[in-house]
Amino acid sequence: MNIILVPGFWLDASSWSEVTPPLIEAGHAVHPLTLPGLEGQDAPRAGIGLRTHIDAVVSVVDGIDGQVVLVGHSGGGAIIHGVVDARPDRVVRAVYVDSGPLGEGGVINDELPADGEEIPLPPWDVFDDADLTDLDDALRKDFRQRAIPQPRRVACDQQTLRNERRYDVPATVIACEFPSAMLVEWIAQDHPYVAELGRIRDVEYVDLPTGHWPQFTKPAELGAAILTAVERNG
Question: What residues does the AB hydrolase-1 domain cover (predicted)?
């Protein structure tokens, strides 16, 4: 299976390096991505929006023979959902890592502090304690050293969706900060945060208790969880 890995904000393809070994060992073709504007500290970020990132991943899907599994971490969840909407026949499963599908008109996070056309990794006190669970001082130092400013518009642009066949693509949610039972409860309560997730017809939940960056805090466990999700589709 071709597995496309889409990182969250401030991260490039290398952020998946400790997650991919079990996927590769199982014989899967792994495609960790660096999205436009995140090629390096000096990469141009003006004019790069949410649709730019969705289109970049669609292009990767179009360049691969056969079906794919999409994996999106954090803001990458919104991106892979846009790809599912664009290519529902090509995606056999969408895996949301401490994230979920972003519905029509939603934005990823328009409250992050921007500096012009980019959003640098904020100070740690901007994040909730739950975000930072298991992210010790050494991991925080490594994260900050590798962090690349995020194109501002990716965080602020509204999601645009067109194809209701996206709801037919099976999904796996790997729940880290919040237990999956809480997500299921929110769906039952029609909470707007999970409205789009609640419309997907086939969703499985996997609990991986840790903070918002399991690729750093529990990479082996994350790799195993992704592998299990992928192998549900043969």
Answer: 3-222
**Tokens 């930072």, located at residue:** 132
Cross-strand bridge partners of residue 119: 150
- Give me the sign of the Cα torsion angle 164, 165, 166, 169: positive
If you write DSSP's letter for every residue of 78-109 in order, what string do you get? HHHHHHHHH-TTTEEEEEEES--PPPTT--S-
* 8 Å CB contact between 72 and 96: yes
Give the domains, in start order, of the chain with CATH numbers. 2-231 (3.40.50.1820)
DSSP annotation string for 185-234: HHHHTT-GGGHHHHH-SSEEEEE--S-S-HHHHSHHHHHHHHHHHHHTT-
Give residue-wise pLDDT tens across range 108-157: 999 999 999 999 999 999 999 999 999 999 999 999 999 999 999 999 99
Distance (Å, whole) CA 64 – CA 102: 25
Nearest of 140, 40, 49, 157 to residue 102 by alpha carbon = 157
Phi, psi of 79 (to 5 degrees): -70, -50
